[in-house]
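Q: Hi! First time asking for a complex rather than a single chain. Here are the components, and I think there are four in total. Is that enough to go on?
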Amino acid sequence: MATISDVAALAGVSTATVSRVLNGKSTVDTELVSRVREAARALDYRPNTVARNLRRRDSSVLSLVISDVENPFFTAVARGVEDTARAAGYSVLLGNSDEDPDKERAYLELAGQAQTAGVVLSPTGPGTALPEGTPPVVAVDRPLPGGRHDAVLVDTRSAARLATQHLLDQGYQRVACLTGPPGVHTAEDRLAGYREALAGRPELVRRSEFKAAGARQASELLFGERDRPDAVLVANSAMAIGLLGTLAQQGLRIGKDIGVVSFDDVPWASLVHPALTVVRQPAHEIGRRAAGLLLDRIGSVRGEAHTVVLAAELVVRGSSTREV
Amino acid sequence: MATISDVAALAGVSTATVSRVLNGKSTVDTELVSRVREAARALDYRPNTVARNLRRRDSSVLSLVISDVENPFFTAVARGVEDTARAAGYSVLLGNSDEDPDKERAYLELAGQAQTAGVVLSPTGPGTALPEGTPPVVAVDRPLPGGRHDAVLVDTRSAARLATQHLLDQGYQRVACLTGPPGVHTAEDRLAGYREALAGRPELVRRSEFKAAGARQASELLFGERDRPDAVLVANSAMAIGLLGTLAQQGLRIGKDIGVVSFDDVPWASLVHPALTVVRQPAHEIGRRAAGLLLDRIGSVRGEAHTVVLAAELVVRGSSTREV
DNA sequence: GCCGCCCCAGAAATCGATTACCATCGGTTG
DNA sequence: CAACCGATGGTAATCGATTTCTGGGGCGGC
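A: Yes, that's all I need. Here is the structure of the assembled complex.
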């Protein structure tokens, strides 16, 4: 790879001039400008971003650290982040923390040490701490403890309340909630909304990881018991897969014997029969807003932390409507 | 952030000694070792990886450039890459080319300029060229033109042939193939396998992007025509969503009126009714093998290009079996 | 005609690490 | 006893860019 010195030598100027021409920072004689451009083209010169970042002490790369790349919600968020970042001339480097605080920490360290300009982060849990030297952070989906950082969240509690209320309105009597691990903010929030809607009725709560396998196990236990629910609110799409597997195995007719509402409007939600009622979260917009906040923050470090809360939408389909 | 000079000053030694202690490259007096370690701890020192990479002219980061983060196949590949990379002490930076050659090129440039140690790439198409300065590359899913690079592929052609044969064996007469855009290797390969199985029977081929919307349109046209197929081989899971949507709309009973086999064993394949027959590709293993090859290549640049071809498996479920 | 100012471009410092090279010291060998 | 050797640690070069500093030349004002 050609370096800036090679270009300077070929053009017969100093490296300072080459840099000035290529960055357009200062006026340079047009004759020299064309000599430099010519030389750069001839050598197929590309600036070494490592050297540039070292000197400039920043870079035009955003880190995106998400808790599960295999979750369609987060990949949609990732798309949103990428779209606005690219529009602003930034690239996005994606790390998958896999809900593991150690991996998360490793990626955050990398984000700081590699001098990325900022981080969009979906924190694994309440224990998430930012290593020293971490650039500006915007939390998505879940807030960071301390509340000193920008965040883009969804009013998932209201959504859970409305979804539960909807099941009750449809005549389901005994609504269960299958939510995520204790301490995970979204899991607790959805549970809280569920409880609000129950308004004193007896609750029926099970927890598992935000994965299909865990939800499968949890729901098998739930439906193996005497006092079965006749409806379930399930906290994400992967868990819905586990739940629906169990229901099929048990021979329960969804929408009749059992009502189901899931979080996240995945593409296949309309393909199962009956189609799945879901809480649709504006995943793409979450990503776009988060990237927007982050770019603002990078532009000027000052200012209060902003928290944006977006609304979720209940999309009613067959899985929750009693076919009378 | 503390720098190596701060540590050196606090420990009363030179930066060279600090570096030697922290990298264990050379023997250093135990007294100095402990002073340095103490100082590093006291200052919460973390080496600046940008500076380190500049000097060492490499890094322990792998780039992963995939063509669609929202495609479960590629996210599973990504998990595989990440798993082996992390085990070897590497981090993974993920870029989403979104099947767009320009974005792909931008990420490849970044991979080279940021001095990542290597790239795992699913090329967007036959036009993919590697910019000068690109580190070692392993292609996944689709080969790179020229054949001078390592690759991990799937024998998707045989799989397509077997899948088509399976549909014919089940008594379907008029099997269509809904595949990806012209020139995309996997699209062509699957089409070729389909044609092999047809063995001269009249073919019925439609193409669209590897996305649900395109497949939906294409299949609406396909089923709007006079001479409809009675079975379809569809080239990926996103396209299957579009196809299944059309079939439901048309009131066709899957597995009876119409047989369906899709590529990619997504989690929801068993949840639709009837369950979807699929070609299961070993996505996670593809990622692991690709990262393995890449790490080998990074270790020693010499050697022939290796191409690993993995087998895919036909998983027969209800969507392709005539319920007699 | 002289002084000061501005503009431009080169020289050199800088970012923060690694590492080639050299100096010192204690001990061993011929 | 001189020459040598290995271990150790400091000095300074280096990676490849950006940016500050500096100096020379041209031009306007007095």
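A: Chain A touches chain B through 51 residues (CB under 8 Å). Let me know if you'd like any chain examined more closely.
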